[in-house]
Design a protein that fits this description.
The chain is an alpha/beta fold. It is built from 13 helices and 15 strands. Helix 5 crosses helix 6. The longest helix has 11 residues.
């Protein structure tokens, strides 16, 4: 895995990156179940706060799969997919103060103006003119170039000498697991945590939950390979839920009490239902999963149990802290990377990611 010492990523050097009137390769959403690698115009600066980034590496998120299923109506056919990546500044608008051509950057999945009411409250995901727009409402990162609005508050300087592939995990998955799962789930020292779903975002929650030294972290999934990865990443117990007895096994592990924090990291009714069955009195259910169908809420059981249920779209407010933890080697997000593809083979990358049970894929890296 390359560290950021490449001359193309060295501050102060201005390689021939500025996109002129030409085309680029980009993966385009064509409607539910349809996508294609197409030639598209290289994006241009539209606002003074914009930057154009030459994408070095990107990846695929579960949210991209939800778009392809038709679960995200804000994403219209014709949109370039992707909201994660690292790259090099190719061009900046006149209002960009903190970046210059040639600077290596981490692209945030959330675009924030930094000025509206929600941004002032730290809810960047609900920025009135930003939020999760990359690869959703505006063209995204699964392309050779991408336009980043509000560059000063939506990009992060890539730490010198860092593993650039690992930095891709700082775009979305690591802050998502941490903010939506660990922080919203109120993980505490000595507490008990169950993470339902050992896919990439569940594993990101597992890695970052260990910042708070819980006494037990139980990983629950249908896939024995992913459970083995979870154990390697620090899960104290793993449970294969295929037999339908996961709740009983959790109760046996916790003295029939349940867990203090149940993190839902899949996004289907069955996994949210399981969280309701295993949460202890006074506990928290933290939802990370993107839900495309309605879910039953069993208040007939939970109304008297002092349960908190939290939801969140990642705000990326913790990205600066996570970058510091990464540089200090307190966390290794490169562990999440299993496969590598060129942009020309992005269809193969999607096939590997969608068929993870067979390919054993977690996060795939796509070279721009």
């Amino acid at each position: 895995m390359a560290a950021i010492t490449d001359p193309q990523l060295t501050p102060g050097i201005s390689p021939p990156l500025a996109p002129k009137a030409r085309t680029m390769k980009a993966l385009v959403y064509l409607g539910p179940g349809k996508k294609a690698l197409q030639d598209r115009p290289v994006p241009a600066i539209l606002e003074p706060a914009d930057a154009i980034v030459k994408v070095r590496k990107t990846t695929i998120c579960g949210s991209d799969l939800h778009i392809l299923k038709g679960d995200v109506p804000t994403c219209a056919p014709g949109r370039i997919l992707g909201h994660e990546g690292i790259g090099t500044i190719a061009e900046v608008g006149t209002g960009v103060a903190h970046f210059k051509v040639g600077d290596p950057v981490v692209i945030s999945c959330i675009s924030s103006c930094g000025k509206c009411e929600y941004c002032r409250r730290g809810m960047y995901s609900h920025c009135t003119t930003g939020g999760w727009i990359l690869g959703n409402e505006i063209d995204g990162t699964q392309a050779e170039f991408v336009r980043i609005p509000y560059a000063d508050t939506s990009l992060y300087a890539a730490p010198a000498g860092s593993d650039e592939e690992a930095l891709v995990m700082l775009s979305d998955i690591l802050p998502t697991g941490f903010e939506c799962g660990v922080l919203n789930g109120k993980v505490q020292p000595g507490g008990t945590v169950a993470i339902v779903g050992a896919g990439p975002v569940g594993l990101a929650a597992l890695l970052t939950a260990q910042f708070f030294s819980p006494a037990a972290i139980v990983s629950i999934d249908l896939d024995d390979n992913r459970l083995a990865v979870a154990a390697r990443f620090g899960a104290t117990d793993t449970i294969n839920s295929a037999d339908g007895n996961a709740a009983a096994k959790i109760m046996a592990l916790t003295g029939n009490r349940g867990v203090d924090t149940a993190i839902e990291a899949v996004g289907i009714p069955a996994t949210f239902e399981l969280c309701q069955e295993i949460v202890a009195p006074g506990g928290t259910i933290a939802n990370i999963g993107v839900h495309g169908k309605k879910v039953d809420l069993h208040l007939e059981r939970l109304w008297s149990q002092n349960i908190s249920i939290t939801t969140r779209l990642v705000d990326t407010v913790t990205t600066p802290m996570l970058l510091k933890a990464f540089v200090a080697k307190k966390i290794d997000p490169a562990q999440l990377i299993t496969h590598h593809f060129s942009l020309a083979r992005i269809d193969d990358a999607y096939d590997a990611f969608q068929n993870a049970a067979g390919t054993k894929a977690l996060k795939v890296i796509i070279d721009g």
